[in-house]
Amino acid sequence: MVSALKCRSKAIMPLFLLVIIALLNSSSVEARIRRYKWDVKTEYKSPDCFRKVVITINGRTPGPTIRAQQHDTIIVEVTNNLFTENLAIHWHGIRQIGTPWFDGTEGVTQCPVSPGTTFTYRFVVDRPGTYLYHAHYGMQREGGLYGSIIVGLPDGESEPFTYDYDRNIILNDWYHDTTTDHAVGLSSVPFRWIGEPQSLLIHGRGRFNCSSLAVPNSDPGLCNASSSDCSPYRMIVVPGKTYRLRISSMTSLSALSFQIQGHNLTVVEADGHFVEPFVVQNLFIYSGETYSVLVTADQDPTRNYWITSNIVSRPAPNTPPGLGVFVYYPNHLRRSPPTTPPAAPVWNNTLPRMEQSRAIKARQGYIITPPPVSDRVIVLLNTQNEIDGRRRWSVNNVSFTHPKTPYLIALKENLTGAFDQNPPPNGYDDVNYDIRVVQPNKNATWSNGIYRLDFNTTVDIILQNANTMNPNNSETHPWHLHGHDFWVLGYGEGKFDKFNDPGKYNLANPIMKNTVPVHPYGWTALRFRADNPGAWAFHCHIESHFFMGMGVVFAQGIEKVGKLPSSIMGCGQTQGLYRP
């Protein structure tokens, strides 16, 4: 597979053809079918000791980990038992080559799964790495519907680094209000902000201070510090052994730092691609990102150590750190570390976060060289606006709204009335727009128009950050692209200079990712090939930001998309076409 991918630097071929050729030429591949049967429902859980309604898969949050090998077929039969809510599940980082209808994005690739019905996703995991799955309907991800996808190399192949054991951790932030409360508040006039999270979870476990509840509650079970649901996450390690720790972020709002007290973390993988190794003490991670780090249990084995997560890029003084324990065997599981948790990074110090972003480069021997030039450049200005009295997030002053008929179906079936046929702007007035002040943006509007990309062309995306509607405030936005990986060509501070900054792009060894941050008052430059037929969302991975309109859709090669399964239909102009 690596050799097939490397040929992209010599001759550009459509992605879906490359994968088919690689599969046909690989006689050693013994692909398996991995079947899962999931029951999605709401239950009372107390992941941070505070009881609330959460969304579970087979009674669990995080949900079951999908484990497979490269080229395996994954079949997930999902039954929606949420009673009153629709459902869609996105397979984050899986490119869905040949199966764009199973990307799991409501309004883009499928109609949602109605309560009481069952939907079957079927797709191939075409490359190894650390990936995610999560709800992609409304704000359900925030309610607990998420989990990991771990794809290993085929038998007989190995990574370019060694370790003794493989572990997986998902980081998250956690609210006590329901997702419905948040959706109503964000859509209200006047606007009601959801605030900062009450807790940080390390693999589904956190600890809220029950004594801090503003109003005493007569229900003694509402917040129970002795609940087994909120006992700290503990990772048992053997002295002297090295662990591959797959760290993912499913936060709904927060950027995080992650550290293991007294231990170095060597970064070796990002979003499924091997990284030229570098060492950190704090790993900065943004919603939707995945990393693999190597950590060796090489400290004093007579004690245990803290695992911590902390919020960065936002002031969150009332959100306590996420805490877990790095347990040296044979120490007792419940033995707390003898020292206080390590100090958190300064939340508004952008410099070390920018330095880490720039340090992530493709590993020597695994570099996929990008095309030297692009065919099209799209600049996406990230703004916050008031539109018809409602607070919205926008791109080039256009706030995204979902159509009633999913784009993939509308495009394939030529349903031209299903969405606005006028494309969004390719940029903004970069000469006169001041990104460092609150702008009135009186031309801000709503739209469900899309970008149509010529198939197999090279596209540059410039993510440009700006001030919000609050003075002296610019937020970090992690952007995620469905159906593709992109080359990260560079980061910068201030306004992107279209004449000089492209000359500074890293074209030698850029990392490929599917999720990337744009830092406050900064820019991030990406390049990708429009070589995967379908309609694909590209959006801020902060749950409230996408809900409020911070996203776009790219369509490409629709004529090459196969016959759509009727199971994805049943909404909008496809009512009556649904077949289970």
From TrEMBL:
**The protein's required cofactors:** Cu cation
Question: Tell me, what is one Gene Ontology molecular-function annotation carried by this entry?
Answer: copper ion binding
Q: Which GO terms describe its cellular component?
A: extracellular region
EC number(s) per entry: 1.10.3.3
Coiled-coil stretches noted in the UniProt entry, renumbered to this chain: none
Q: What is its main location?
A: secreted
Q: Which PANTHER family match?
A: L-ASCORBATE OXIDASE, MULTI-COPPER OXIDASE
- Protein name stated in the entry: L-ascorbate oxidase
Please report the organism this UniProt entry assigns to the protein.
Hibiscus trionum
